[in-house]
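#data-curation
PF: Archiving a pair of folding outputs for the training set. Convention for this channel: one message per protein, sequence first, structure tokens after, nothing in between. First:
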Amino acid sequence: MPTLLWFRRDLRLRDLPPLLRAAAESDGVLACFVLDPRLEASSGSRRMQFLCDSLRQLRDDLDGRLLVTRGRPDERIPVPVKEIDAPSVHVSEDFAPYGRQRDDRVRSALGDVPLVATGSPYLVSPARVTKDDGEPYKVFTSFFGRWHDMGWRSAARSGAKSANWVDPTKLGQRAKPVEIPDPGVELDLPAGEAAARRQWKKFVDKGLENYGDDRNRPDHNGTSRMSTQLKFGTIHPRTMVADLTSGAPARERICESWLFVTSTRRYCIIGPTASGGIGTAISTPSKPIPARRPSDTSNPGKPARQDFRSSTPACVSFVKPVSCTTECG
């Protein structure tokens, strides 16, 4: 009996832990994406265009074997599950309030069929960075200090050939796929996994070195423009960090500005934990944090002040990834 792999914010095939777990539990995997009318109604045309372009690319990467259905997930997911008699449904864990509520409704609708969450969109999943007593941090400086001691799991070695994919066109009428919409908006940012990896490589090769200055220049295209790719999961942060750590000694100096900015922004970098504290997606190096600047020499009596930027590590190269299991993230 095939398992079902439900794509959400992970529209890729490489470094996808739930794919490996789904394939390990069965000889076949049915790939599925649910177009939720509530999200369609609340999304702008550009966002929908990027989503749909990413879905078309994912479908092509699967040689057409992607079931795209429309409706409420708690109503639509059980349909193919019953059609193929799936023993389990596999997803990347979602930590946002809407995602958690949606998943709870789907679990209830599935009954005895488990909804198995493996991995997450983050390099280090929310709630992993905590105080010694397990409580979440509420002050960023303290959180950032503990952040240095965390590593991340190795990338999951997944891809299009990791599973025997079920052809959705052979399912019953109730589970037949719908056409992927095309809002007709022309985007200057190509979507899909291959495009995300090309875009990131271009930034690392040509934009990273001058990022510290160019990101403050409105007349320069100096940012990575990876936030949309991270939002839809066409690339995982592990992939991005791995590129920064290769040839690390030469990149330590130029990684500093990029890491400082991205580590303090929320798109797939910093996110809330289930407990309401601070969570993280990018893990930084195990490197001591200088607590203070030297005292102001013009005023020897003036206390040294905290310098957050000086505590930022040069590059993620100092962190050694921990070994990956199916529970990546």
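PF: Second:
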Amino acid sequence: MNEFDIRKYQNESNILVDGPSALANERDLVISFYHVPSGRSVYFKAFITAFNENYNSNFTPHEAFGRTDPIYQYKNTTRKITLAFKILAASEGEAFENLGRLSLLQQMLYPSYQDLDSATTLNQAPLIRIKVMNLLSSNFVNSEIPEAGNQNPRNVFYNSYKSTKDPQLGLLGIIDNLATNHNLESEDGVFFKREERNGVAKGVRNTILPKFIDVNLGFSPIHEQTIGWKDGQPLQSLFPYGIVSDQTSFGRALQSAVYDRRVELEKQEKAKYVKANGELRMGRVNRDLRRSHRGNVGAANNLHDLAESTNFNYSGEQTDLVFDEDLIDG
């Protein structure tokens, strides 16, 4: 259920062109949920109407005699996320599928059970991973240093910043509340489900399909890594959006490595140029020897000395050029 097609259930809708489906399918602009106990996932092509993050640092105040201000004892820092989005349907078939996707998300709010000694026993709590593109994710790190080429190392930070729609890389936590509004009273209203019999479309009794559904949820993340500081450096410099820049220790290390690689590439290119230039000079020496090897031994010896002088040392590596001794023997 990770692809969207408004023509999936109704052939007569094949003339519709759906831009949001193209954005969802081709650019992965989707919201996804991953149910940890079952491994099931569900995707939504939706318009986000609200996305808020709230961080609370919790302290316990202790009053002390004679002190103007209390002594604050730190307890923890919590993170709370609220997300609201609209699920729209451009056809009856898409409205039908939207209800199915929403049903699966609602089912994910309930726990998992197992049979133990003929009794149903609670097995796992309904932990959820939620993925909202690059804004809610649990994994960003690309440990490989990208090829720098001739680009500015700072551009490497921007060019390497990417995300994926994989719901298993979503942020772990719990959905502590979820509200849905089917907007039955709105002007958009609903689709009245139809079915085709003998080539004639007829309305189905007692069945409606909402055209758009509002979803509002509260999400409490569970930190899988320790967030904080040590020796003046953040323990997780990519938290929470995976941004690598020259303001982070990882970014500075990456920038240094990119600079080193760029210098090495320039050094290799220079070595190739110097070697090619030396080979060109040697070719000219051998050409002159061919012209002078008959009777002009002295000139040939001078050229021999010149050829030896073309052997050069670059960056500690001896580069030997081949001198054609047989040309003198002629």
